Amino acid sequence: MQCWWRRSQHRELCAVLSFLLFICPMCWSQESGLNPPGLSQFVLPGSVSVAARPVGNLEDWSSLSLANSQLIPEQPLLGETDDNPQFTRELLQVKWRQGDPIDLYVIRPKGVAKPPAILYLYSYPSETEIFRSDTYCASVTKHGFAAIGFVSALTGHRYTNRPMKQWFVSELQEALGSSVHDVQMILNYLSTRGDLDMSKLGMFGVGSGGTIAILAAAADPRIKTIDLIDPWGDWPDWLAKSSLIPEPERSNYLKPGFLKKVAPLDPLEWLPRLKSQRIRLQQVLDDSATPSVVQERIKAAALGGARIVAFDTTQQFSSAVSGEKIVQWIKDQLQPGSSLQPAASELLNSQAGKEKVKSSHDD
After folding, report:
1. Residue 299 CB: number of other CB atoms within 10 A?
2. Among 41, 284, 335, 355, which one has the highest count of C-beta atoms within 10 angstroms of its own C-beta?
């Protein structure tokens, strides 16, 4: 029951994002078969299920860098390749931790030798179905871009061999620290392929995925631009007020020991330090998973270096970024000679946008 409750939170915004990218349950079943398994759901004959993460001193979750961790990648396993007139889609299994194989989707446009690449990371508790949709893949690869899809730690197929009381937020340091390391390890793998332009990399992150995108960009300069939708952060206030937290558990996450562990992974600390990356921050003001006080502090941390767009409601957000427009900005940033100047039409999507434009004109 508690698991269902958690998944029901954040549903409206996640549903809108899926709709905007032409995804629905019918699409999944028609295009890929009903609930087709990822690689991590297959067990090889004779294999033994291994309990997850006897990490010990092999991984430092408090550090964004890989320098203090000993993650050694195994040879990637190719599960399947889908050949579409517009794109090719590979499903691979990559692994650098015991008991934590990751389903990785590499989706490349046809006719482009070394396309720029964008990593897509959606918010907990998203899974990988979206990457199996042909409609979605055609959209994100349009105009010559590769799309890299995966889920964060303790999410989807990566939530295995754990007690039910352990979940993404109860293990927040691990979930964020592992996922930031995963992004860097994935980039290391992609650099060995030779079929992507590693000088033009971006990351699109929603909710917890936006948080991980900020932290990963701080750790890895290969990420040139990040597009964020309501990233989580400002942990003391987020944990105290987010609708995602079950009330019976909330007090556990406000204890000094818990807050101390996650403090080094607060995007409020890292967002102002991103000087070389191009950043867009989109905020949906009625998204209760990210409380308004948190949205204000994240916005303040991003001021000066980021393009900020606010939407009063989820419906307004849906209308403004429908169809392929939701990913067009990040694609534009990875084009040669692209500019960071905002388009006034995008800023006029809310009263906050109108005030921003008026202030700019008054200056």
Report:
1. 16
2. 284
pLDDT tens for residues 190-200? 999 999 999 99
Residue 13 has what pLDDT? 56
* Chain CA centroid to CA 335, Å: 21
Question: What distance in Å separates the CA atoms of residue 338 and residue 351, rounded to the nearest whole number?
Answer: 28
Q: Where are the alpha helices (DSSP H) in the chain?
A: 2-8, 11-20, 25-32, 134-140, 172-193, 208-219, 235-241, 247-250, 256-262, 267-270, 292-302, 314-320, 325-333, 344-347, 351-362
Please tell me the distance from the alpha carbon of residue 187 to that of residue 26, in angstroms, as a whole number. 32
Spacing of C-alpha 55 from chain mean position:
23
Cα separation, 361 vs 166, whole angstroms? 50
For the record, the structure tokens of 322 come out as: 């429908």
Tell me the Cα Rg of the chain: 20
What is the number of residues in the chain? 363
d(CA 183, CA 217): 9
User: Helix, strand or coil for residue 23?
Assistant: coil
Range 29-52 burial, b when 16+ CB lie within 10 A, else e = eebbeeeeebbbeeeeeeeeeeeb
Judged against a pLDDT cut of 80, whether residue 43 lies above it is answered with: no
Place of tokens 């818990």: 258
103 CB burial (10 A radius; 0-12, 13-18, 19+): buried
3-state secondary structure 51-117: CCCCCHHHCCCCCCCCCCCCCCCCCCEEEEEEECCCEEEEEEEECCCCCCCEEEEEEEECCCCCCCE
What is the crossing angle of helices 172-193 and 208-219, to 10°? 60
The tokens for 191 are: 């650099």
Residues 90, 84: Cα–Cα separation, whole Å: 11
Tell me the backbone φ, ψ of residue 88, rounded to 5 degrees. Answer: -115, 145
Quick one: pLDDT at residue 322?
80
Nearest to 69 by CA among 215, 187, 178: 178
